[in-house]
Design a protein that fits this description.
The structure is a single chain. This protein is of the alpha+beta class and 338 residues long. It folds into 3 domains: 28 residues, no CATH class; 203 residues, Chemotaxis protein chec (3-Layer(aba) Sandwich); 62 residues, SpoA-like (Surface presentation of antigens (SPOA)), CATH 2.30.330.10. It is built from 10 helices and 10 strands. Strands 1-5-6-3-2-4 form a 6-stranded antiparallel β-sheet. Strands 7-8-9-10 form a 4-stranded antiparallel β-sheet, with no helix packed on it. Strand 2 and strand 3 form a beta hairpin. Helix 3 packs across helix 6. It is elongated.
Length: 338
């Protein structure tokens, strides 16, 4: 869309034209000159905008799951939401996080490589304080974790990673597993410094303490499932597999369900007086002709047509026609019309 000039800019442009400072030819030349956009090969854009949007949708679901999980475990107010999804060199990500922080390094099967979830120490210490019976206040001074604190924190974040796999279920079946916890980013070398990574930043608030949680995912690790992050895949994605499995189980159960089947040999009308005078040996004449086909009902719906006969010494009915839609009848045997 063309740029819209303000009234002051229009007045300045007309003034420059009238004073001779600017000519119409110069304006035309500026418009026709090719605009050059700088490209930094160290910051290769390997994720498309479509894939970035897909990652944003996945982590919006992940943030909701984390909010529920931490709220239940910490028993306090928790709010986690996606702030941004960016792609940048791995070296730049390392420089952007604190020198001492909580780094949860985890593998994601069947992908070959590691992801990292960086938790701001202020948030991490607030969670730890809450788990150990405190009020959930963060600490301004970053210190090393004791063995007990390290064990408690690893257990909490290992369970949180289970929801990471749940958030990705619509795209791929991922099985995250905690590998190690580190506090110094300089000792964490997942990929080469120039490798492009996707960094999802989550704004987190635990009680009165706020901070950031960053999830770093190298492009080289995500590459096998990158085609599934496109909008085309999301539009053509089928229903969840568990739904189809449930449907098959229901169909299998219905195959063994019992259904009442009856055959109507014919009908006749008699008076109440004739009915009261019936005795053993009396014959009731039906209005059904002997060569007419008999209706076969499933429940109260006519589903088949057949003819009477004998099979292996027993009275039987042979099905001669299948009524595809079936004909529903009321209690009096009359067809139900809509």
């Amino acid at each position: 869309m063309a740029e819209v000039l303000s009234q002051n800019e229009i007045d300045a442009l007309l003034s420059a034209l009238s004073s001779g400072e600017l000519t119409a030819e110069e304006i035309r030349k500026e418009e026709t000159d090719r605009k050059v956009k700088t490209y930094d090969f160290k910051r290769a854009m390997r994720f498309s905008k479509d894939q970035i949007r897909s990652l944003s949708r996945i982590f919006e679901n992940f943030s909701r799951l984390l909010t529920t999980y931490f709220s239940a475990n910490l028993r306090t107010y928790v709010q986690i939401q996606v702030i941004s999804v960016e792609q940048l060199p791995y070296e730049e990500f390392i420089r952007s996080i604190p020198k001492v922080t909580i780094l949860n390094i985890f593998g994601v099967q069947p992908l070959d490589g590691k992801f990292v979830m960086e938790v701001n120490p202020n948030i991490a210490y607030a969670m730890l304080d809450r788990l150990l019976g405190g009020h959930g206040h963060g600490q301004d001074v970053v210190r090393s974790l004791t063995e007990i604190e390290n064990r408690v924190m690893m257990r909490m974040f290992s369970r949180a990673l289970e929801y990471f796999g749940d958030a990705w279920k619509g795209v791929a079946d991922l099985d995250p597993e905690m590998d190690m916890m580190e506090v110094n980013p300089q000792f964490m070398q997942l990929v080469s410094p120039n490798e492009t990574v996707a960094v999802v930043s989550l704004s987190s608030k635990i009680g009165e303490t706020s901070g950031m949680i960053n999830v770093c995912m190298p492009h080289v690790v995500l590459e096998p499932i990158m085609p599934k992050l496109s909008a085309h895949y999301w539009m053509n994605i089928k229903k969840p597999r568990e739904n189809s499995d449930d449907l098959q189980a229901i169909q299998k159960s219905l195959q063994y369900a019992s259904l009442p089947i009856s055959v109507e040999l014919g009908f006749s009308s008699i008076t109440v007086e004739e009915f009261l005078q019936l005795t053993v040996g009396d014959v009731i004449k039906l209005e059904q002709e002997i060569d007419q086909h008999l209706p076969i009902k499933v429940g109260n719906a006519r589903k088949y047509v057949g003819q009477p006969g004998v099979s292996r010494g027993r009275i039987a009915v042979q099905v001669t026609e299948v009524l595809e839609e079936g004909v529903k009848e009321d209690d009096e045997g009359l067809p139900i019309t809509r």
